Amino acid sequence: MNETLREEWWLATLGRTVIWARLRVRDAGTAEVFDADGNTLAYDSEDSARAALMDAEFVALDGLDDEDAAERGFAVDELQPPRADDDEALRELMMRKLPPRH
Fold first, then answer.
1. pTM (whole model) above 0.85
2. Are 72 and 13 a contacting pair, CB within 8 Å?
3. Could you tell me if 42 and 29 are in contact, meaning their C-beta atoms sit under 8 angstroms apart?
4. Which residues, at least 6 apart from 51, have a Cβ–Cβ distance to it below 8 Å?
5. Which helix (H) or strand (E) holds 87?
6. Exposure letters 49-85 (e unless 16+ CB within 10 A, then b)
7. Are 45 and 36 in contact (CB under 8 A)?
8. Block means of pLDDT (10 residues each) for the chain, length 102 residues?
9. How far apart are CA 84 and CA 100, in angstroms?
10. How many whole angstroms separate alpha carbon 83 and alpha carbon 101?
11. In the chain, what are the domain boundaries?
């Protein structure tokens, strides 16, 4: 069985809109990315999945610091990855417009 070893959240931004992607690393050494369109994209390795996300200008949430977030126009504490019971419900939450900053 191909179990999930680790799950990471990645994001891209367009103004105050956050576009999420979920990276799952499998025990077989493969990876998959669930994107904002509801697609699950399979990759032969974690490295190739990460490279594809970076090519699409996504950054790992875990690696985002206050300065990086400020350059994108938001604060790290504004970000919470979406949560849902299944991928179908999750798809609706993968793009989120952050409220205006005061």
1. yes
2. yes
3. no
4. none
5. helix 87-91
6. bbebbeeeebbebeebeeeebeebebeeeebebbeee
7. no
8. 87 93 95 96 97 97 91 88 95 92 68
9. 25
10. 24
11. 4-92
